[in-house]
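Question thread 4412

I'm putting together a teaching handout and wanted feedback from people who do this every day. The idea is simple: show students a protein as raw sequence, then show them the structure tokens that encode its fold, then repeat with a second protein so they can compare. Below is the first pair exactly as I plan to print it.
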Amino acid sequence: MNFGILIVQGLVNTFGPTVMAAFAAGVKVDSIAYMPVQDFGNAFSTFVAQNKGAGKINRVKEGVRSSTKIIIIFCVIVSSLIFIFSKDIMYIFINKSEIEVISLGVEYLSVVSLGTRVILAYILASTWLSERGIWCDIPIGWALADIIGIVYYQKKINL
């Protein structure tokens, strides 16, 4: 994730200091919000490994369903809070007098994996969306990564 952000930062830099500042603040919020999701993933992989090792495949299937529900609920709640309070959250990282930076940062957070996000960022930024294409690549990249993960686990569980 951090390597992808670094590569996207090069693209962001071409849009000037205002977009750079907004992106930097947005990425901080994005990273903070993403940390618990990473921990869910770590806990889930341990759960799967232990139960698969014990031959409890049905428990793995049940865990996939439960974990998916928990993660979706968590992500909806966090995304909603960030969407609702995006301007206030930006004030944590950006001075209130930086109106344009805050506006762009709020936009980033409002439409808020590695390879997919980087490629999407460059493709979408070269369209009429301009820097907004970078903001849009994040939810698209997360959704694609989630879909691929769900399909992968479904195939593994059904083996």
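The second pair follows. I'd like the answer to focus on this one:
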Amino acid sequence: MTPLSNPPSFDPRLVPAEGVDSHLPPVDPIALVPTALRKRFAAPPPWVPELTAEPAWSQRQARHASVLIPIVMRRRPTVLLTERTLHLPTHSGQIAFPGGKAEDFDTDAIATALREAQEEVGLESVFIQVLGQLPHYRTGSGFIITPVVALVETGFTLSPDSNEVADVFEVPLAYLMNPAHHQRHVYELEGRRREWFAMPYQDREKLRFIWGATAGMLRNFYRMLSA
């Protein structure tokens, strides 16, 4: 399956799901607690990422970027996500992890992810414990993304950048690591068959339509934890 991020004139919410992966087992809740996550990244089992690249729809030169997958250490761990503002040039309005393109002064992919989390949502690195990285993920818009997985202590205060972030919210990690919530979508666009995952989540505010690159990286995270 090749997921799709944000081609022009496309609304993924209007494409019906062709199936749901409820036949796959969810990750055991015991494997989602901080101690178990630390052990998994310290000694990961052999596993293969399911998704690594999307069909390219941008002609721009590939750029490196990093995102932080922040697992908030609540009684039931959650993943902190953002909703991007509508005026951004790429991935506008989408659900995303805090992150962005690498700068020359960043020492590595982790430095990029931590800096972007601070700049985008005000998440200070003092609350963050990096666990490790997932395989690179190439978006259709030309970004080569390094997902950096981290635990986040509670007690932080966020200050989102209103230019980039329309909203910040949390989704239970157990929900995202349960394939019963992993929808498969298929769409024909410009003569090409496109496929992607979506993980819609209804919270108290509204339906959060998680899809494309964000859902693809979460699917890889599921594959690592269930290996």
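Top answer:
Good format. For the second protein you could add a caption like this: The domain at 19-226 is CATH 3.90.79.10 (Nucleoside Triphosphate Pyrophosphohydrolase). The chain has one domain: 19-226.
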